[in-house]
Specification:
alpha/beta; 19% strand
């Protein structure tokens, strides 16, 4: 039996364990990336290890999230990132150079390489054939130190593509079709692998869009073959020496196969407030639109902006619409400036935004009260935009551009524009002057906002306290730790912890801190798919700082589960899902013999308030169990 592309890459990087679905394995990481929202803590953690210098093949520190720099905190963080990268041997990508995933795809990602990034959309590089996964900052810091990455060998879902996309239907619509089928939960420890004759009709940037939003399904990674289109992209980037042909064996067997006829797909949209809430654009036609934003790591490539401009050409946006366009990289901006695309966008009424994450993370461009915002980004979680009452829809650049003209939700197939001549260029404008290579100087700048990573204590013999909060299903890391205006506190844990669960229960931090100061352990009770979304490890660090010792949930998403273990928090699952209903916020709880229960993974939660005994399962590998006992990975590294 042949190998899938996924297992070919994993086998060539396997360090420990048996490469069998469901088994715990360790793999060598070639490349790492961080961004400034997660990077400050990742580099502080790297320093805490005392390793000295980067030991993996390539480490890049990108600045693309907190580029607005309101207040001194962001600028100080960026100076810390620049100087620590210089000291330890990482490449620093300056603010303005672009969004990490777009820039990494253009300048560094290669087929067959492993990439670990402290951002959940790191799987974007799967579009070029990298095994690319998101992780918490501590896991990335460990990979930078040369320590293998621990994962569960994934089940591999084959997605068989046939046919060709019709005009005005895009790669964004393909991944929305995948989300419609697989949903946003239940895909833990899974890899999506695309194959079939339809793959050859998609360029690398289009493949990257599809791989990017696989993260919304909760999969570890998404993979496309490395073929002639891959070689053409690398040649256009003057990087063809890194090309290797890579694909699944003809007799490879997938755990399951999902068939997609590209020619049958129509323009789709993800409706509020989940990327998995999919409807056809035709069903939404006529809904008034107030804001349109084109960009983000999902749809900010040269071809995306060319197609949007072709639709906008000769038109002006509707009076009710604010249109913003954010090129994904400085390279894209240079390209659209030279060929006149930028001129077309500006004449149509577009506001040109910085090449950064910006609106996608709620850092600016918050929509108006109860307004409708169409965005080409990848997440529309409740309140992520910065406006809780707004309705955010995720659409393709084609749908976004055409709707900006009409002022209402509109199917781009009704446009009279001609997109047939738009192709990936044979050569991109390459300018790497915004990368700073390390010189290994010793001086590191630390502003007053730069703290130290908090360290947990070993798991105590007695874990007793209260259910500090009870939340429902699909609680995202945005719900747990808000982004937007709060991002600037990410290197200052005591301050950032003041905003845990801000959009759900602003009183949570005060309540949790009081229990902690009284010597109690805190519990979080949650429904299914807890911790979906961003890789932000602060969703584990800040609750840990506030005294949380256990998360008791129906299910927990992969990256968040790893982050909980990394910081010594028990990720516990209800053996009987109905038991979730039995616990109320404020109940007094105790885990029976927690340290003794670690080995078997079978726990008993005693709800003292109701005198109920609830069976739980520890969601952790054998290695993670040892980590929890010690109180987290930083404690292990120091031993």
């Amino acid at each position: 039996m042949g190998l899938t592309q996924c297992y070919k890459i994993l086998s060539s990087h396997l360090v420990e364990g048996e490469l069998k679905a469901g088994e715990s394995i360790k793999i060598k990481i070639d490349q790492t990336l961080t961004q400034d929202a997660t990077g400050t803590m990742a580099y502080l953690e790297f320093e805490a290890m005392g390793v000295g210098r980067v030991r993996n093949e390539l480490a890049i520190s990108y600045v693309d999230h907190n580029t607005v720099q309101v207040g001194f905190e962001n600028a100080d963080d960026h100076e810390y990132l620049r100087t620590i990268a210089d000291r330890i041997g990482a490449i620093y990508s300056r603010a303005g150079n672009g969004i990490c995933h777009q820039v990494h795809l253009e300048r560094f990602a290669l087929p067959g390489k492993t990439l670990l990034g402290s951002d959940s959309h790191t799987p974007t590089a799967g579009g070029i054939g990298s095994f690319a996964a998101g992780a918490g900052g501590l896991d990335v810091a460990l990979a930078m130190a040369g320590i293998p990455f621990s994962i569960i060998a994934p089940r591999v879902v084959g997605i068989h593509l046939t046919g060709t996309l019709r005009p005005f239907v895009s790669a964004k619509d393909v991944i929305l079709k995948v989300l419609e089928h697989f949903g946003v939960k239940g895909n833990v420890n899974t890899v999506f692998e695309y194959f079939g004759e339809g793959v050859s009709t998609l360029s690398v940037p289009e493949r990257a869009t599809i791989a990017n939003m696989g993260a919304e399904c909760g999969v570890t990674a998404s993979l496309f073959p490395s073929d002639e289109n891959t070689l053409a992209f690398l040649k256009a980037q003057n990087r063809e020496e890194g090309f290797v042909k890579l694909e699944a064996d003809p007799d490879a067997v997938y755990d399951t196969v999902f068939e997609i006829d590209l020619s049958a797909i129509e323009p789709l949209a993800a409706c509020p407030h989940s990327p998995g809430n999919i409807k056809a654009v035709r069903e939404l036609a006529g809904i008034a639109v107030n804001q349109v934003l084109i960009g983000s790591c999902t749809n900010s490539s040269y071809m995306d902006l060319k197609k949007a401009a072709a639709i906008l050409k000769g038109h002006h946006i509707a009076p009710s619409v604010s249109l913003g366009v954010a090129p994904g990289s400085r390279e894209v901006l240079l390209m659209i400036t030279e060929d006149g695309t930028l001129d077309t966008l500006i004449k149509a009424g577009a506001r040109v935004l910085e090449s950064a994450c910006g609106f996608c993370i709620g850092n600016h461009q918050s929509p108006g009260t109860e307004s409708v915002s169409l965005r080409t980004s990848n997440r529309n979680f409740y309140a992520r935009s910065g406006t809780p009452s707004a309705n955010v829809y995720l659409v393709s650049p084609e749908t976004a551009a055409y709707s900006a003209i009409t002022g209402v939700f509109s199917d781009p197939r009704d446009s009279e524009a001609d997109l047939s001549a738009i192709r990936m260029p044979e050569k991109f404008i390459i300018d790497d002057s915004m990368f700073i290579n390390p010189s290994f100087t010793d001086h590191v700048k630390r502003g007053p906002n730069i703290g130290k990573p908090p360290v947990n204590t070993p798991l105590p013999e007695k874990v007793k306290g209260h259910a500090v909060i009870k939340v429902g299903e699909k609680i995202t890391t945005d719900h747990i730790m808000p982004a937007g205006a709060r991002l600037k506190y990410r290197s200052n844990i005591p301050r950032y912890a003041e905003f845990v669960f801000e959009s759900i229960d602003p009183s949570f931090p005060e309540r949790a801190a009081k229990y902690r100061d009284d010597g109690e352990c805190g519990f979080i009770i949650a429904g299914s798919s807890y911790g979906q979304g961003s890789s932000r490890e602060h969703a584990a660090i800040c609750p840990m700082y506030l005294g949380i010792r256990a998360v008791c949930a129906v299910s927990i998403e992969r990256i968040h589960q790893a982050n909980l273990c990394n910081f010594g928090i028990l990720p516990l699952l209800f053996k009987n899902e109905d038991d979730y209903q039995k616990i109320d916020q404020g109940d007094e709880l105790e885990l029976i013999n927690p340290r003794a229960s670690i080995l078997s993974g079978d726990f008993t939660l005693h709800d003292i308030s109701k005198d109920a005994y609830i069976p739980m399962t520890l969601f952790a590998s054998d290695e993670q169990k040892k980590t929890i006992l010690r109180g987290g990975r930083l404690n292990e590294v120091k031993e």
